[in-house]
Amino acid sequence: MSAQINEQKADFNAWAVDMQARMEKVLDAHMPLASVSPMRLHEAMRYSTLGGGKRVRALLAYAAGDFCGATLEQVDVPAASVELIHAFSLVHDDLPCMDDDDLRRGKPTTHRQYGDAMALLVGDALQSLAFQLISQDKLLNNATQKLQMLHILALASGSRGMAGGQAIDIESIGIPLTRAELEHMHIQKTGALIRAAALLGAYSADNHDEEKIKAIDHFAKSIGLAFQVVDDILDADADTHTLGKTAGKDKLNNKSTYVTILGLSAAKQLASELHANAMAALSFYGREADLLRHLANFITQRSF
């Protein structure tokens, strides 16, 4: 049995590497060249987006798309759009007026490399490009399908999603939060875009199985929160080299985290419980959901 599990894990790892490389090519193909005016902005956009990251959101989109019967080609643009939104959020999060960080994905943050003003414009441009790609995607022939995707991505990015969660985060510095308050913040700040990635993958398919989409939604809500719990654990328990970004920032900034509220051991237990909830959402399905299951393992067990 252990040999079979190891083989399945190896197959998933090979799939993930292939999809990460695929996403790199898709992003490269859809982003403006650095040789096109305004050249420095386009160079900075490519610097901020290409050549790094685990592409977890793209992997979720591809896995959900596979589960629902979408082709890789159908998922390419929706997955890239989510990655662009994620990249934009990182550029803005790292700015001095936000988290003021110097390192991202093992290299200087965008504002350190290109200046604050250019970094602000990079985030704006990446966000706009994400919606542009979906709106002009020729593989999305159904106007209703396209509008649904745009709505999902807009909701996940705005005041009731990622931006709203970041606003709560900023206002909560130095203020002890309850577990419920922390969960509400991270459902918006981190979980909303992870959920959007999975749903965009699902809606990329020509035919929509509502039961499968419900299962994916439940799965993504659990795994999105688990992702943040693990991030809090890593911030407290890993070094800067391992993370590719500055370790210990939450403690330095006096932020409430799952580790500060629950303790390290209980935070790890919570990650395990959320992983179990995600798996339960797929319990009625067979091997067609295996990519999502392996991805849940990848997200929650990536360092401990």
State the gist of this model.
This protein is an all-alpha fold and 304 residues long. The chain is built from 15 helices and 2 strands. It is 73% helix and 1% strand.
Description of the molecule:
With 304 residues, the protein is mostly helical. It has a single domain (2-300), classed as Orthogonal Bundle (Farnesyl Diphosphate Synthase). Helices cover 73% and strands 1% of the residues. The chain is built from 15 helices and two strands. The protein has helices spanning 2-30, 39-49, 56-68, 72-93, 110-114, 116-136, 143-157, 162-171, 179-203, 210-237, 240-243, 249-252, 258-262, 264-281, 290-300; strands spanning 103-104, 107-108. The protein has a two-stranded antiparallel ribbon. A hairpin with a 2-residue loop joins strand 1 (103-104) and strand 2. Helix 3 packs across helix 9, helix 4 runs antiparallel to helix 9 (179-203) and helix 14 runs antiparallel to helix 15 (290-300). It is globular, with a radius of gyration of 19 Å.
